[in-house]
Amino acid sequence: MGVFLLSSPAFPGVFLFTLINLCLIPELAVAGITRHYKFDVNFQNVTRLCHTKSIVTVNGQFPGPRIVAREGDHLLIKVVNHVQNNISIHWHGIRQLRSGWADGPAYVTQCPIQTGNSYVYNFTIVGQRGTLFWHAHISWLRATLYGPLIILPKQGVPYPFAKPYKEVPIIFGEWWNTDPEAVITQALQTGGGPNVSDAYTINGLPGPLYNCSAKDTFRLKVRPGKTYLLRLINAALNDELFFSIANHTLTVVEADAIYIKPFETDTVVITPGQTTNVLLKTKNHIPNATFFMSARPYVTGLGTFDNSTVAGILEYQYSSSIKKLPLFKPVLPPLNDTSFVTNFTAKLRSLASAQFPANVPQKVDKRFFFTIGLGTSPCHKNQTCQGPNGTMFAASMNNVSFAVPTTALLQAHFFGQSNGVYQPDFPTSPIFPFNYTGNPPNNTMVGNGTKLVVLPFNTSVELVMQDTSILGAESHPFHLHGFNFFVVGQGFGNFDPNKDPANFNLVDPIERNTMGVPSGGWAAIRFLADNPGVWFMHCHLEIHTSWGLKMAWLVLDGKLPNQKLLPPPADLPKC
Ligand code: C2O
Fold first, then answer.
1. Which of 3, 237, 443, 450 has most Cβ atoms within 10 angstroms of its Cβ?
2. How far does CA 80 lie from the centroid of its chain?
3. How far apart, in whole angstroms, are the C-alpha atoms of residue 47 and residue 111?
4. CB of 521 within 8 A of CB of 492?
5. Strand 447-449 to strand 400-402: parallel, antiparallel, or no bridges (unpaired)?
6. What pTM, to 2 d.p., does this model score?
7. Residue 30's pLDDT is what?
């Protein structure tokens, strides 16, 4: 049974729970089962790089517990907050059909869970299978609060590729020797860039290339001649990553829990918020060597990055104990290798088969054009700020830097109390068009507000996201809550509405929930607004989110009873 293979000493608690649950499944069950999880958010001492810190964890685990479910299952996850911080958890990539109350972004779909309180996230996994993850969605708490969310196909339904011998989650993260909450608080006070993390991690471990870290190395022991499914998850806060395993080729089979047309590569590009499943075929004979699996950042623009590499070790069973074996290291692309990223991205195509069709919206009801990029905001009176020319860093979409409300948008909408909370007038295109990727304008100041786009139920949306060069062009991994979208086109420079749509791929474009909008370029996405609720959209570089690179869509109820947002649960937190 597939789930047994997901066992790993790193995540024992929830795994046992899942095992017990799965043993209760009748072999041919079609409807999903209900799975209960309990997330106790508490402090735990964790040591990395010779620094011991008390960090916020779920159930004392770092990374957090793994959720394993099947398509169709109903999840009830009780989150109990035992720490001083306000908490909320997001199930990244879960569509949350009509269950927006369980989506998680603080002040968007819910007020955060306050100290001593709890909330049950209650949702059903509909029409999805693959690798996703969960993470805190308030401030920078996701630095330590994150874990895999694995959705197996329904019982008896195979993968569209040969059954792997084992499945292994590989979750990338970032480690700070200091408190990440202090890092973001300081950055927002001074207006400057945040202190960069001290290490990247694989399954919470920085690996041997950092000082005082060799014992904290992820080791993957494999057998020869087998196929392993690696479930890659980028939970890092601020960096897109290159990932490669020395002397081994990877076959990419899934992105953001959507099957794709398989292709081979030595190196995978993965942005924060993205997940990628790859097949690793091990060598037929045990080699007299061990192999690094390494990740390091892909950086454009200003970048918030640390020029270092996390490494784990791939070792063949029975080989390492005999003698000290040579260690091979992969060659990763240069830090700023945009052409590698462009070539990799171009290979990503939906499977678009009869069983897994690509339902690309063919007609468009509403078109939107959003600029995305950094800018500045004025320094507080009598203060000197550390952003560009004594200002504060900020970020905006269509020059609106999102102001986080003090109550949740979804409640305000549902109870008809939006006055003073948000305005339904997010601009559909820039108010003052300019040469977005040309010489930056003199005025880099952003405006701000809590503005939403309101969409009638079932609106077919096309959105072009255009990077700006205001403080330097930069790649932005954009994430949409509540939907997958199709990436129908992308390019460099300014989007040309007369020429570019002719080249859109409406047949087998990649379908996903997070995409890297090219540095100094644009991307066109389409989605059908068939899920009523308030849906956050933001750059998944956490510092950009903190600076305001976020907005929300309000999708109204449809006419039919099954097209309406369900009422909020009784335990929904209050602000
Ligand atoms: Cu993975 Cu809004 O987040």
1. 237
2. 23
3. 32
4. yes
5. parallel
6. 0.94
7. 60
Mode of pairing for the β-strands spanning 290-298 and 310-316: antiparallel
Residue 48, ligand 1, Cβ within 6 A:
no
CA 350 from chain centre, in angstroms, equals 19
pLDDT, tens digit (0-9, with 9 covering 90-100), for 182-224: 999 999 999 999 999 999 999 999 999 999 999 999 999 999 9
Ligand 1 geometric centre to CA of 318 (Å): 41
Distances (CA, A) of 297 to 199, 234, 339, 420: 11, 11, 15, 41
More confident residue, 440 or 543: 543
Q: What is the mean pLDDT of residues 254-279?
A: 98
Which atom of ligand 1 is found nearest the CA of 536? 2
CB atoms under 10 Å from CB of 507, counted, come to 11
Tell whether the model's pLDDT for residue 333 goes beyond 70. Answer: yes
CA–centroid distance, residue 20 to ligand 1 (Å):
30
369 contact partners, CB below 8 Å, separation of at least 6: 428, 429, 430, 463, 464, 466, 495, 497
Neighbouring C-beta atoms of residue 143, cutoff 10 Å? 26
Find the helix or strand (DSSP H, E) in which 263 lies: strand 258-265
Whether residue 90 has its Cβ less than 6 Å from ligand 1: yes
pLDDT higher than 60, residue 28 = no
Give the Å distances, CA to CA, from 268 to 56, 72, 395, 518.
Answer: 30, 30, 28, 16
What does the pLDDT read at residue 376? 97
**pLDDT score for 321:** 58
- pLDDT at 298 > cutoff 70: yes
pLDDT digits (tens, 9 = 90+) for 468-507: 999 999 999 999 999 999 999 999 999 999 999 999 999 9
Which regions of 473-568 does DSSP assign to beta strands (E)?
Answer: 476-480, 485-492, 511-512, 514-517, 521-529, 533-539, 550-555
Length of the chain, in residues: 575
Contacts (Cβ under 8 Å, ≥6 apart) of 187: 193, 194, 195, 393, 543, 546
Extract the tokens encoding 21. 């649950």
Query: How far is it, in rounded angstroms, from Cα 421 to Cα 404?
Result: 9
Handedness of CA 97, 98, 104, 107 (dihedral sign): positive
Considering only CA atoms, which residue is closest to atom 3 of ligand 1?
A: 92
β 476-480/514-517 pair status: antiparallel
| pLDDT tens digit sequence for 365-385 | 999 999 999 999 999 888 899
pLDDT at 31 (0 to 100): 79
pLDDT score of 1 more than 50: no
d(CA 120, CA 227): 38
Backbone angles phi, psi at 154, to 5 degrees: -55, 150
User: What is d(CA 237, CA 543) in angstroms, rounded to the nearest whole number?
Assistant: 8
The Å distance, Cα 137 to ligand 1 centre, comes to 7
Domains of the chain: 2-152 (2.60.40.420), 166-346 (2.60.40.420), 366-563 (2.60.40.420)
